[in-house]
Amino acid sequence: MPVSLIKRIGARLAPTGRHAGARKAGVPLFSLNDPRWGHNPKSNEGRRPNNNNKNDSDGPPDLDQLWRDFNQRLNKLFGGKRGGDGGPFRPDARGVGLTATVVGAIALLIWLASGAFIVQEGQVGIVTTFGRLSHVTGAGFNWRWPAPFQSHETVNTAQVQTTEIGYRANVRNKQPSEALMLTGDENIVDVQFSVQYKIKDPVAWVFNNRDQVETIRDSAETVVRELVGQNKMDTVLYTGRDKLAMEAREAIQRLADRYKMGAEIVGVTMQSVQPPDQVAAAFEDAGKAQEERVRARSEAQAFADEVIPQAKGKAARLLQDAEAYRASVVSVATGNAARFDKIVAEYAKAPAVTRDRMYIETMQQILSSTSKVMIDAKTGNNTIYLPLDRLLAQSTANEAARGANSGPVMAPQQNPAQPQAQQPAATPAQAQPQAQTEVSAGESNRTHDLRSRDTGRERESR
């Protein structure tokens, strides 16, 4: 590259200066690659002494002379002329003007190129002219007038940005001046939260506030301090954290709209709400008790959800059973009443026959539900064994069955091995008159009752 530049410079300066005179004089011009380039063969100026008396063309080039010749030609290119042999250069107005034009054009192009800028997707560019809004550009390649006439600023409108209050980057990096807040019951809590927001109006975001992020942080801190001061400590620590975050988002949005910040509050996240470190242990115990209370309440609610449906089902079943029993009793009573009505009609037709039939049916019902002992009178044994235990058990079973027919109970023969003193004894002569007396007494009583009823009914009919 330097060699080609030097060649072009030599070619341009060939018609002028001493090279033109040399050409007129028939002096040959050498190439830059020629070792004799820059040397005058007719003069001994600048020649290196040759102790061996050799030809100049046979020696190596003089680097110092080469460098001086290069500087001379470079000065001539940019408007300098030599006043004579070895004299100083004089400025050339034409060369200076051309050089200034080229340099100025290059500087102008560089200055104009500095006005180009690229806006990424999801961003907008705001162009200002002397600090005043000029226009808003979209994504892509854009151009504006370079400084100091115009400037631009890119604003990201698609990304959700986050600012922290009470901490920075990590909850352990606390900011006590922002985090410590006073509750409504005059307790101190350490509140650390973050605010997520998006830029919805880039022009308002850039021009209406000087420090936008700090303004959002101050607004959020003010709102949360007010809400914490309106609630008790237990509400802030345990039960009302989600509600507090929702109310804080709405209040911060209203404040941002009042300040015309051009921001949309996406959400508020409560990172940490806890008592100060000095009383953290005591509040931890209180928190465990609170969790135990909640757990016990949950278990009680689960037990109630299990027992109450069972009790309701049992109550409904009892009501159904009672209703069925009532219907059964009513139907039985209705049937008995209808039967008695029919009996009355039959009794009016034939009182004696009806009375005997009723007596027989009653005796059949009574005797069928009682225990009976069959005694063989032809046996020659004078002692009769009555199994009282079996009779009592049979009587109890008959009473429980109520109407179930029972077969006769045969009296077992007496075991000779058993002593007679432990067995209740009765002679046939004594047992038979007693049984006949009881039967005759029962029949006479029933006959007397039936006759009394008949007499009463006849009197009523009369």
UniProtKB/TrEMBL annotation:
Domain Band: from-to ranges: 114-287
Q: Where is the composition biased (Basic and acidic residues)?
A: 445-462
Q: Where is the composition biased (Low complexity)?
A: 49-60, 411-436
Gene3D superfamilies found in the cross-reference section: Band 7 domain (3.30.479.30)
Location of region: Disordered: 30-64, 398-462
Gene Ontology terms for molecular function? peptidase activity
- Spell out the InterPro entries in the cross-references: Band7/mec-2_domain, Band_7, Band_7/SPFH_dom_sf, HflK, Membrane_HflK_N
The keyword Transmembrane helix appears for this protein: yes
| UniProt topology in membrane | Single-pass membrane protein
Record's function text: HflC and HflK could encode or regulate a protease.
PANTHER family the UniProt entry points to: MODULATOR OF FTSH PROTEASE HFLK, STOMATIN-LIKE PROTEIN 2, MITOCHONDRIAL
* This protein's name: Protein HflK
Q: List the taxonomic lineage.
A: Bacteria, Pseudomonadati, Pseudomonadota, Betaproteobacteria, Burkholderiales
Annotated gene: hflK
